[in-house]
Write a structure and sequence with these properties.
Number of strands: 7
Shape: globular
Distance between the termini: 135 Å
Radius of gyration: 35 Å
Helix content: 40-55%
Strand order of the largest sheet: 3-4-5
Largest sheet: 3 strands, antiparallel
Strand content: 5-15%
Number of helices: 15
Order of helices and strands: HEEHHHHHHHHHEEEHEEHHHH
Length: 406
């Protein structure tokens, strides 16, 4: 049976062009209608593969060996550059990114909408600079380094950071770098706190002494009672255990165990340092007693709906609402500096490290044994910083001018 010339036959049964014509002329096999020369089809075989899960499934994707090699080299280069980057730089950039996340949490509380971390725009970056300046109260040089760190970390995470974004952030930073008061931030060693300082901080009014300028963008709020109780507990317990900012940030409720004598606190390990279990006894004054302040905070946050056994210290917004996120290391340091500022203690540099230094100097003046003080704060036996604090505490012990008849 002869098929009509214009009827299409299955692919497996076709012969094309000259091959079909030659076969017809030879007279081999069953008779077939010759394909006209004008309909001759040329099939070119290419090195390709089917991509079933691509948007246009079933289409042919041509393999490009050069593009594959270039892509592999890019991956290798990224891994190599990551390996050779100094560990201090990696740690610093990771900390910068944590601050970027903390800023987004703060911004969500202010605006009621949480933005994606990858939204690195002129608006978010300039707001980040303002937040570092007004809320964190970072030094201009620190802010500049944070800009670099967040930019690098965002690009490493495959987020787009246009050039105009970083340029806008640095334009916002420029007038801050010319301000002498801002330039003085973060300079010098942290001053040591004393128990008298803690009582002054914990009993200060819950409003800043400074009157808000109507022209300023900053607004002054009454410190919520829940935030005040948290800061009292945080600052006194931090002093009592000579805690680092990172340690107090990682502390959980279950690690603060009540005893007849006071509290047994397991200070968690951070940055490769081992954890430690230290005693905290009742204080002589309610306003500086770490045990009473901790119990008051624990009762208040439980009543506010905190999950039992969660982070010891969490965020509290400006309206007094309890958050679920644990207070960051920077947030721990700011709590102590903020309380000192509200108490009018502006003549010394009070930071998150002031309590740690203060326990050693105060304890040594009171005759506490060196090994007891060292174990409480988790210092190594040969720590030069610890022995510097010991020397400060012993400064007036058997002083050269004492009792010589002056």
């Amino acid at each position: 049976m002869t098929m009509p010339p214009d009827q299409e036959t299955p692919l497996a049964g076709r012969r094309y062009g000259k091959e079909a014509a030659d076969g017809q002329a030879a007279g081999g096999g069953s008779q077939r209608t010759a394909v006209p020369a004008s309909r001759e089809v040329v099939v070119e075989v290419v090195d390709a593969e089917l991509v079933d899960d691509a948007p246009a499934a079933g289409t042919l994707t041509v393999y490009d060996p050069a593009a594959a090699v270039l892509a592999a080299l890019d991956v290798d280069a990224e891994e190599y550059l990551g390996r050779i980057r100094p560990s201090k730089t990696r740690t610093g950039y990771a900390r910068d990114w944590q601050l970027w996340e903390e800023f987004h949490g703060w911004l969500a509380e202010q605006r009621g909408v949480r933005l994606p971390l990858g939204a690195v725009t002129v608006g978010t970056f300039v707001a980040f600079v303002t937040w570092l300046d007004e809320v964190v109260e970072a030094a201009p040089n620190s802010i500049e380094r944070r800009i670099t760190g967040v930019t690098s970390e965002a690009r490493r995470r495959k987020y787009t950071v246009p050039k105009e974004v970083t340029e806008a952030a640095r334009r916002a930073l420029k007038p801050l770098k010319l301000d002498k008061a801002r330039q003085a931030r973060g300079r010098g060693k942290a001053a040591a706190l004393s128990p008298e300082d803690l009582r002054r901080m914990n009993s200060a009014p819950r409003e800043p002494a400074r009157v808000a300028d109507a022209r300023s963008r900053r607004r002054t709020y009454l410190v919520p009672e829940l935030a005040r109780l948290r800061d009292r507990a945080l600052n006194t317990l931090k002093f009592a255990v000579a805690g680092r900012n990172e340690e107090m940030s990682e502390l959980d409720d279950v690690q603060v165990v009540p005893t007849d004598e006071g509290l047994k606190v397991y200070v968690p390990p951070v940055k490769g340092r081992p954890g430690r279990t230290v005693p905290v006894t009742y204080g002589e004054h309610p306003d500086s007693c770490p045990v009473r302040c901790w119990n008051a905070w624990l009762h208040a946050k439980t009543a506010a709906g905190a999950e039992p056994g969660g982070p010891a210290f969490v965020y509290v917004d400006q309206w007094g609402n309890l958050g679920a996120r644990r207070l960051s290391p920077d947030g721990v340091g700011r709590a102590m500096a903020r309380a000192a500022r509200y108490a009018g203690m502006t003549g010394r540099r009070i930071t998150g490290h002031s309590g740690r230094r203060g326990l050693v100097t105060t304890g040594r003046k009171s005759g506490k044994r060196v090994e007891k003080l060292r174990a409480q704060g988790g210092w190594s036996p040969n720590s030069p910083v610890f022995w510097e604090y010991i020397a400060e505490g012993e400064l007036f012990e058997d002083a050269a001018t004492d009792g010589i008849g002056l």
